[in-house]
């Protein structure tokens, strides 16, 4: 690890082949939207820091676009299209990763969406699909990858990072399903920390506040995704457009930094947890909120 940390202190941020994650292999699921995707920003940043990234999205065309973007910048990338909730998905992506690069260092469980309804109007299927994608899918992917993490002797940097939300920590109106799922993610992560820590594997959660993605954009924009043959509207009713604190200092009075976060902000926090800089951080939930909730 001392050698790893020496690399950290001298890494070149704009040079592929060197960096915080040089030579490591990372699976990153979901949210590859151009300009709006945390998954896209995380994959680009990980590749920039020397990682070989495996990206996945339910939209194959979007996947191709991000793959081309990473390759054009000199990064190494493998695309695996599919629905993270599908029964065959974990084996599909783990097998493809190991066949290509022979190992897995990091899994970032980022795929997800919201399906908001008030608790008293939420049908079973609306609750169940959120639990399936946000809890069951990460659990099944991590379980599938267990043989590549539960290694008796491995000096390599290895971690699991599960994406939660402040909704999971504090609850949120209209999100009984999402808040429940994101709270479960924290418990899952802490359990991995305790079970896999003896193998040198770190497990952490990142809980995002307001990050400007398609999930937090205005619902009136009409963005939808198709889940199990049904169209699900994304976004927040009446959400304001993203503005910087210099443009409108009081646009976000409830956020101490007076702005919402960007996908790049989100990606930076994930990189920290995956990197050797967090070599003694495990079982932690990192709140990335601009100061909200303190």
From TrEMBL:
UniProt cross-references to Gene3D superfamilies, sorted A to Z: NAD(P)-binding Rossmann-like Domain
Keyword Oxidoreductase: yes
A biological process term (GO) from this entry: fatty acid biosynthetic process
Protein family per UniProt: Belongs to the short-chain dehydrogenases/reductases (SDR) family.
Alphabetized GO MF terms: oxidoreductase activity, acting on the CH-OH group of donors, NAD or NADP as acceptor; quinone binding
Organism: Hebeloma cylindrosporum
Protein name: Uncharacterized protein
Top-level taxon in the UniProt lineage: Eukaryota
InterPro entries assigned to the protein according to its UniProt record, in alphabetical order: NAD(P)-bd_dom_sf, Sc_DH/Rdtase_CS, SDR_fam
The entry's keywords: NADP, Oxidoreductase
């Amino acid at each position: 690890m001392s050698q790893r940390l020496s690399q950290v202190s001298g890494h070149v941020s704009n040079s592929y082949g060197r960096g915080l994650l040089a030579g490591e292999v990372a699976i990153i699921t979901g949210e590859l939207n151009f300009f709006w995707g945390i998954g896209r920003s995380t994959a680009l940043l990980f590749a920039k820091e020397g990682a070989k990234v495996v990206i996945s999205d339910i939209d194959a065309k979007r996947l191709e676009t991000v793959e081309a973007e990473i390759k054009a910048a000199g990064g190494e990338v493998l695309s695996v299209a599919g629905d993270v909730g599908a029964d065959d998905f974990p084996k599909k992506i783990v097998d493809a990763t190991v066949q290509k690069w022979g190992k897995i260092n990091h899994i970032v469980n980022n795929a997800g969406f919201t399906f908001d309804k008030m608790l008293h109007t939420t049908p079973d299927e609306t609750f169940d699909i959120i639990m399936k994608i946000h809890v069951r899918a990460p659990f099944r992917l991590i379980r599938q990858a267990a043989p590549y993490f539960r290694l008796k002797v491995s000096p390599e940097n290895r971690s699991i990072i599960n994406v939660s939300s402040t909704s999971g920590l504090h609850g949120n109106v209209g999100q009984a399903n999402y808040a429940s799922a994101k709270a479960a993610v924290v418990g899952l992560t802490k359990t991995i920390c305790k079970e896999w820590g003896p193998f040198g594997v770190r497990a952490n959660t990142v809980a995002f506040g307001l990050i400007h993605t398609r999930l937090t954009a205005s619902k009136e924009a009409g963005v939808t995704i198709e889940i199990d043959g049904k169209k699900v509207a994304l976004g927040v009713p009446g959400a304001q457009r993203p503005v910087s604190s210099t443009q409108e200092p009081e646009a976000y009075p409830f956020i101490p930094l007076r702005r919402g976060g960007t996908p790049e902000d989100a990606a930076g926090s994930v990189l920290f947890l995956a990197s050797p800089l967090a070599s003694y951080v495990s079982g932690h939930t990192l709140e990335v909120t601009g100061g909200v909730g303190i």
